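Lecture notes, continued. The same structure-token format from the folding unit now serves as the input rather than the output. Read the line below as a description of shape only.
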């Protein structure tokens, strides 16, 4: 049990956690509250690619019990059953699928994958092997409509989990690059950080795409985006690749999205400190209220910033919300908590409700 990340007394911990969750859903989890309520109104099928894990199973039990989603569990059946029994989980009637035992389905998925990827270097032989892997199998389930959303990534690195999703499901129409957003909540208000998980060194053009995508997802959470494009300089105060790129991205984004409140390039403290903005940069569109949406110049900055806030900043975080996929796929960060997983399921379900409506 230790290797699945379970504390000494999971049941006790769970009770405390559950109490905490209930309290938070009602009080400080306002932002998620709406999403969770909406998920419950029309629960969807969510496939968990890494179900041989206590945290995933605990989250699956909760979302089932709270009527947020219908889980499907992927993994070795005996191992999953063992965990369910060991921790007295109530997952009766939940489908458990081991892709290695699903010959007919794998053959069908292999051909579908081959059709998609035959001109991208995959042979049918490759596809037959790949669909036995849970991430590919899970993505194929979402792709073929057997499931509405996929949750994965708890125990594997992000890039090897996102690759199957990009190959099998891909981006939604009109989107060039997917990106990952984190919601950082402090006592004041939620902040939206992007891109925190996908694009290594986005160009100015790519930053403009990321800005548009992020604005849409900020609205998904019922907030009006006030966007700052971040750099280590304020409005041309330093020279260098990052200031130039972020300044250019700001200029293009203002043109492309005339209705959005965007400014930059600016330093992170400037973006969120209205005193500083008003005193030194009163001309800025953000001078009134400051930013709630922070666009990072590259993955290193965005990823490091959110993780530091999470670990030593004491902030409540939700994510990573994978934005711009054609169908809902969300990849957890290594070591996400049960609570993080439940939040991501709620987001995926609401994502799926909207996605279905479009079809
Ligand atoms: N948006 C949309 N599609 C993309 C993106 C993107 N950002 N990046 C790649 N793709 C597409 C490619 O165009 C390609 O499409 P195609 O094969 O149909 O033509 C497909 O995805 C697969 O591309 P690959 O070339 O196999 O993958 P690539 O080498 O481009 O890598 C990846 C993509 C895995 C996302 C890479 O950019 C990466 O590793 N990013 C960083 C992930 C990471 O480590 N994040 C930090 C940790 S996350 C955390 O802390 C929670």
């Amino acid at each position: 049990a230790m290797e699945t990340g379970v504390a000494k007394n999971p049941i006790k911990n769970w009770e405390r956690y559950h109490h905490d969750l209930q309290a938070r859903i009602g009080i400080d989890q306002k932002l998620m509250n709406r999403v969770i309520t909406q998920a419950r109104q029309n629960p969807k099928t969510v496939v968990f690619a890494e179900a041989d894990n206590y945290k995933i199973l605990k989250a699956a039990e909760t979302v089932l019990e709270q009527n947020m989603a219908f889980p499907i569990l992927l993994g070795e059946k005996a191992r999953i059953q063992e965990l369910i029994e060991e921790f007295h989980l109530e997952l009766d009637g939940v489908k458990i699928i081991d892709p290695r035992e699903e010959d007919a389905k794998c053959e069908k998925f292999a051909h579908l994958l081959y059709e998609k990827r035959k001109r991208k270097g995959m042979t049918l032989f490759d596809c037959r092997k790949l669909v036995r892997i849970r991430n590919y199998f899970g993505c194929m389930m979402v792709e073929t409509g057997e499931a509405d959303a996929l949750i994965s990534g708890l125990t594997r690195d992000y890039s090897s989990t996102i690759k199957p999703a990009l190959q099998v499901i891909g981006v939604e129409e009109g989107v060039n690059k997917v990106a990952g957003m984190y919601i950082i909540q402090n006592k004041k208000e939620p902040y939206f950080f992007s891109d925190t998980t996908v694009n290594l060194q986005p160009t100015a053009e790519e930053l403009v795409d990321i800005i548009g995508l992020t604005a849409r997802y900020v609205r998904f959470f019922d907030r009006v985006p006030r966007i700052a494009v971040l750099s280590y300089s304020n409005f041309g105060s330093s020279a260098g690749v990052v200031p130039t790129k972020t300044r250019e991205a700001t200029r293009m984004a203002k043109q492309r999205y005339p209705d959005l409140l965007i400014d930059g390039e600016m330093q992170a403290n400037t973006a969120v400190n209205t005193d500083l903005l008003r005193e030194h940069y009163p001309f800025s569109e953000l001078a009134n209220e400051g930013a709630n949406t922070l666009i990072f110049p590259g993955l290193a900055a965005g990823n490091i910033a959110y993780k530091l806030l999470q670990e030593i900043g004491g902030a409540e975080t939700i994510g990573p919300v994978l934005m711009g996929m054609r169908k809902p796929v969300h990849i957890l960060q290594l070591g996400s908590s049960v609570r993080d997983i439940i939040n991501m399921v709620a987001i995926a379900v609401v994502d799926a409700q909207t996605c279905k409506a479009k079809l």
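Point for the exam: DSSP finds 14 helices and eleven strands in the chain.
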